[in-house]
Write a structure and sequence with these properties.
This protein has about 625 residues and is of the alpha/beta class. Helix content is about 30%, strand content about 20%. The chain has a five-stranded parallel beta sheet with strand order 10-17-11-12-13. It binds FE2/S2 (inorganic) cluster.
């Protein structure tokens, strides 16, 4: 942090918040709110005279509330810049009757009560999101007594208590009587790997090794301390981690396989009794301990939604930001020119965060050094002659890559080519067919449908599969040698959001018994929220088919991921069974109804054309 603060080419903006990000790769315009700190960081010498006279005392967030701070304070000992800040929510104000003492004693006169927030504009070529994570609050696990029993603390609180710069100067004391405990327990997976509706289902990655490190610290500082770790299973993967785990065991730390179900407190001694089923021995055990640490898991930042909106990113079902490709582009966000690093992407330790940050910086510098970027040849373009200026395309675009039309000026929308990712949702939603997707043009997809249904259409399972998940799921089924019907015919689109209503209708008009549209699971769509438009469109289509007397069940929608080869094969087998249920009469009726609809539509268009010409 110090190095970053001193680096001549890095501008560090602390106490600041990004308000908006506009533009696209190479041309981001970022608005940052530099919050008022009321102390000039360039003048402040961190002499601490101000803090000595400040009469306010509030819990110190950095010390997890174990000690207090003043209204004017140094956020933490190694803060960069090394300057005090004044928290106006705590301050009594510059009213001589109320206070104003800090300004009086500041020899450098660097305290300014009238300081204001400042909006700063930054032109950026690329953006790296490294907004980190938060820790899980274990209060809802009431059986562990956190907040009810003083001597039950979290792993974050443990860090402060054992730290030399902590509230106890590095002396590990239990909160109830400020004595060093002789026995201590750790419960793992608090808020992680949970399926009971509390916490999160994923593994938080760092807690096992953090506890191993904590036990080693305790054994080092207090030889003879009795430490017990209650766990489901210890995950010590990573360089040197198994050795560390073994060392902890050699130091005498006891690892007990089982998560305590109940904790009680002795009113006299404040000691805690844990009841646990030891799943190795199969016995119920009771352990009396003087202190307990809950190894809390990691959660996405609570303001993650804001970051997601600012950068038009998507998140996984766990709430962490999704990468462009887990193996090939692990630090690229789906939005071009945006990279991700650290726990914003998933829970990880320092080493992995540094590795990922270095990778993100390297990826970003490739773009910056090149000064230009290649775009995929699958972007959209507008045909102004067909556009009726409705602006739906601009609303649909997950990347804000379409500049909305100007109806009054009769100006058609424009696609920012560098920002377009080629999902095709805009083209599928445009009722005027005014959007052309390069390499996924309407005519090209229609031609594929016609080719598939040219011979024996009633035997074919026509499937629209998105490139990233469903199509890869089909591949997976193939490479795993899973059996699925040979009548299955796939049409690949980049996203299920590209599947236009007219493709499905055309397929039914040509005699398709069943049509399947398949895409990524909702939170996995590679084009942020384009898959939501797939769902909406399919809802509309089911209604339409129903009204026309066509069984809506003949149009299926499935979410199949790249790893779900099994599901892909299963769906195909189910569909084949469904095909057999569609009689030739039903298909003929559908074809007739849709042909009539098409004739009506064409007539309407020609009448409108005559009207225009007349
Ligand atoms: Fe698969 Fe959008 S990329 S549904």
């Amino acid at each position: 942090m110090m190095d970053v603060g001193r680096h001549p080419r890095i501008e560090l903006m602390t106490n600041s918040e990004v308000e908006s990000i506009a533009g696209f790769v190479g041309n981001f315009n970022v608005t940052v709110r530099k919050k008022a700190r009321y102390v000039d960081p360039n003048e402040c010498t961190a002499c601490a005279e101000c803090t000595k006279v400040c009469p306010v005392a509030v819990p110190d967030e950095y010390q997890q509330g174990f000690s207090s701070r003043r209204a004017i304070y140094l956020p933490f000992p190694q803060a960069v810049p090394s300057s005090y800040v004044l928290n106006m929510n705590d301050c009594l104000g510059n009213n001589p009757i109320a206070c104003g003492k800090c300004a009086e004693v500041c020899e450098k006169h660097c305290i300014n009560y009238d300081d204001q927030d400042e909006l700063v504009n930054i032109e950026a070529g690329v953006v790296i999101a490294a907004t980190g994570m938060e820790v899980y609050d274990p209060t809802e696990y009431d059986e562990y007594g956190y907040t009810r029993f003083d001597n039950v603390i979290t792993s974050m609180e443990f860090e402060r208590l054992i730290c030399a710069g902590g509230p106890t100067g590095g002396h590990f004391l239990r909160p109830s009587d400020r004595k060093t405990p002789k026995s201590i327990g750790f419960i793992q997976c608090i808020g992680s790997r949970s399926r009971d509706g509390r916490g999160n289902p994923y593994c938080s990655n760092i807690c096992c090794m953090n506890t191993v490190k904590d036990t080693l610290l305790l054994c080092d500082h207090y030889p003879g301390i009795e430490a017990k770790v209650f766990y489901m299973d210890m995950r010590a993967f990573g360089k040197g981690f198994e050795d560390l785990y073994m060392r902890s065991k050699e130091e005498g730390v006891k690892y007990i396989r089982g998560i305590p179900g109940e904790i009680t407190k002795d009113a006299q001694t404040d000691n805690l009794t844990l009841t646990v089923e030891n799943t190795t021995t199969g016995r119920r055990e009771e352990h009396e301990l003087e202190m307990l640490v809950l190894a809390q898991g990691v959660i996405p930042r609570r303001d993650g939604e804001q970051v997601k909106k600012l950068l038009t990113l998507s998140t996984t079902s766990d709430g962490f930001i999704m990468e462009s490709h887990p193996k090939l582009k692990p630090v690229d966000a789906p939005t071009k020119g945006v990279f991700i690093a650290g726990c914003v992407e998933s829970p990880k330790d320092v080493k992995d965060s540094v590795t990922q940050a270095s990778a993100a910086a390297a990826r970003a510098s490739i773009l910056l050094n090149a000064g230009k970027t290649k775009i995929e040849a699958i972007t959209s373009r507008i045909d102004p002659a067909r556009c009726n200026f409705c602006g739906i395309c601009a609303q649909v675009c997950p990347y804000n890559a379409i500049i909305a039309p100007d109806r009054k000026a009769e100006k058609a929308p424009t696609v920012i080519q560098a920002a377009c990712a080629g999902c095709g949702a805009c083209a599928a939603e445009c009722a005027q067919d005014a959007i052309i997707m390069r390499h996924f043009r309407d005519e090209q997809i229609m031609a594929q449908i016609e080719a598939i249904l040219e011979i024996n259409p009633h035997q074919h399972l026509l499937t629209f599969a998105c490139n990233w998940c469903s199509y890869a799921g089909g591949d997976n089924a193939g490479t795993a040698r899973l059996q699925y019907p040979t009548t299955c015919r796939l049409i690949r689109t980049m996203c299920s959001g590209r599947v236009d209503e007219k493709f499905v209708i055309h397929a039914f008009r040509l005699g398709a018994p069943i049509v399947l549209v398949s895409g990524c699971h909702f939170s996995d769509c590679h084009y942020i929220n384009a898959v939501h438009w797939t769902q909406k469109r399919m809802d509309r289509l089911w209604n339409k088919l129903d009204k026309l007397g066509i069984r809506p069940e003949r149009l299926r929608l499935e979410w199949i991921s790249a790893a779900e080869g099994q599901k892909f094969a299963k769906v195909m087998r189910e569909l084949e069974a469904g095909v057999k249920e569609v009689s030739e009469e039903e298909i003929a009726h559908t074809m007739m109804v849709l042909a009539e609809e098409e004739a009506k539509r064409e007539e309407k268009i020609s009448r409108r054309m005559v009207g225009v010409e007349g």
